[in-house]
Structure of SURF1-like protein:
Amino acid sequence: MYRFLLSRQWVIVTLVAVALIPTMIELGIWQMHRYEMRTARNQLVSDALTARPVPVERLTSPGHTVTSAERYRTVTATGTFDTSREVVVRRRVNSDDEVGFHVLTPFVLADGRVLLVNRGWIPANGVQTAFPKIPAPPAGQTTVTGRLMPDETTAASGIKDIKGLPDRQIMLINSAEQARRLGNGVLGGYIQQTAPAAKGGTPQQISDPGKEDAPLNYAYMIQWWLFAAGVPVGWWVLVRRERRDRAEAAAAETSAAAEPATV
């Protein structure tokens, strides 16, 4: 009755079905891990953004690597902006996907150590090889607030650290690289300034980090596992249909053979 399952065609169909089941289960597990990672990341970001602001010296120091738990923590610092050693970060986009620069200004604390402050985005205002006109920060002693960020690397950001750039232009914000340039005790990481608030003629502040779409990964996980469960069901439906078609064909042949020949 099911001898057709030993045919070449059906052996291939069965092997493909058998291979698809663990593959789809594995894809579902991968999506589950993605869901868990994105959920954990969203929780870390939420916790960091809602945590009470603390002085930046509590979380970082020269040579410190900002951890995932410290990332996006709101910190404060009091000091003065050193615009004479200000640089811009190339090929950065704003919320409208316009290409420009991020403004990175050293912020000298009372003890002489330096905090790197990303003051926000400005348009290129001409060719990218020219140093742009940068709005001045507040003069004198100032208290700034911002989100603590880890050093940028090519591995983490995908941005290639191009050498031989025009003067006072960089590709990545990296405190170790800036410490070699500034020659001071540069605190690890940097901050994205959120206060004082941006006003007319000042760099556009960088928006809050968005949440990753973890529920989408959860939906994909369920989808792949439903597909895995559906493979054997679909295989059995095809087998039953093939058996029925063969039985009907055999019955038709038998009926035709049993009919008496007409004269």
Remarks:
- The longest strand covers residues 99-109.
- The beta strands are 54-55, 74-81, 87-93, 99-109, 114-123, 142-149, 169-170, 190-195.
